[in-house]
Specification:
Elements lengths: L13 H5 L8 H17 L5 H12 L10 H29 L3 E2 L2 E2 L1 H5 L1 H17 L8 H27 L7 H31 L7 H22 L11 H4 L5 H7 L3 H11 L6 H9 L2 H24 L4 H18 L4
Antiparallel strand pairs: 1-2
Helix pairs in contact: 3-4, 3-8, 3-15, 4-6, 4-8, 7-8, 8-9, 8-11, 9-14, 9-15, 12-13, 14-15
Length: 342
């Protein structure tokens, strides 16, 4: 069983947890409609990027990299990693509902397996259960309140980002505005969740980080989205439903749209024409081949990653060697995880 399940309510704990005036046996119904589906969701392994960022935020809060982390802080960081994963998991469940997605981690999406009402409730519950776990970090009252304020602010930003994502038909925006709109959406959504992970780690250290963790989180989020988009485009066509062109079909602002908008107006017009033929992919795939779009995306993604690596090496190689190693490992993970075909 996934270790994260240990912070879910235990069987038999409902009466005390909910303090009902008329106690009843809720184990079966809450197991079926909430805990069992959520537990099953977390059995499917992700890339474990966000929990690693929690430790990274902890290390970067110090003036120099701590060689050893005290056992007490190790346990707190582990819980903080679970908190981030709960929030991220809730966002994936809700995102898949809003996007009408069919596949998540090579399996049917949560709402297709358990129904939309159960999925929506589970996604929201994960947000609130995560916030409730903050007190278990055993920080000072001031630190706990500060951390809750930070997390609340970041989650509000993420929902603003989702509003941009859902409310924008990117094909109806002028070509000159597409790139800026896409980058704003990426920063508010993907970047914000990574900022949250870094801030949780810094809070465990009980120090005020000198480094701008939000800037780092936004940069990492940007690159995560780059490679996610590239991976979707480079994925070979499958007979089963995939996420290959989902964001294009839904006209959502993504990095792929931003890249296409940099091309000349006639080429971009042809791109829009191909998009409007979806779900028939023939015209779009012809356009992608004609303009070597996958190679274009690959070069841009690799270039961004190389520049980030160089910047972090210059900035951290003396003061934070362990943190630098984590960042470089995450960069390699992005390449390996998202690049299906090069």
């Amino acid at each position: 069983m996934n270790d994260i399940s240990k912070i879910f309510p235990e069987t038999g704990a409902w009466e005390k947890l909910l303090a009902l005036n008329n106690p009843c046996d809720l184990n079966t119904v809450l197991g079926k409609s909430l805990i069992d589906p959520v537990n099953d969701f977390f059995q499917k392994p992700g890339k474990n990027i966000r929990p690693r960022l929690v430790e990274l935020g902890y290390r970067l809060a110090f003036d120099s990299d701590p060689v050893e982390i005290p056992e007490e802080d190790i346990q707190k960081l582990k819980l903080a990693g679970h908190i981030v994963e709960l929030i991220h998991g809730g966002s994936l469940i809700v995102d898949d509902i809003q996007d009408g997605s069919h596949v998540r981690r090579n399996a049917p999406t949560f709402h297709l397996q358990h129904g939309l009402p159960v999925a929506l409730n589970a996604g929201n519950w994960l947000y609130f259960w995560a916030l409730g776990q903050i007190k278990e970090l055993k920080l000072s009252n001031d630190s706990t309140q500060k951390l809750l304020d930070i997390i609340l602010g970041l989650m509000i930003r993420a929902h603003f980002g989702q509003a941009v994502d859902l409310g924008t038909r990117i094909d109806e925006i002028s070509q000159s505005d597409v790139e800026k709109t896409c980058y704003a959406s990426m920063e508010l959504k993907t970047g914000t969740l990574l900022c949250l992970a870094l801030q949780l780690g810094a809070a465990v250290s009980n120090r005020e980080p000198a480094m701008d963790l939000n800037a780092l989180g936004n940069k990492l989020g940007f690159m995560l989205q780059l490679f996610d988009d590239f991976g979707n485009f480079a994925e070979e066509k499958k007979s089963s439903p995939s996420k290959r062109y989902e964001d294009l079909y839904n006209r959502r602002p993504t990095w792929a749209w931003a890249q296409a908008s940099k091309l000349d107006s006639d080429t971009y017009s042809d791109f829009l024409s191909a998009i409007r033929q979806l779900p028939n992919e023939d015209q779009l795939e012809q356009w992608i081949l004609q303009h070597e779009f996958i190679n274009l995306m690959w070069l841009e993604a690799r270039g961004s990653l190389t520049r980030a690596r160089d910047e972090w090496r210059n900035q951290l190689h003396l003061s934070h060697p362990f943190a630098l190693e984590t960042l470089l490992d995450l960069c390699s993970l992005l390449e390996k995880s998202y690049v299906k075909k090069t």
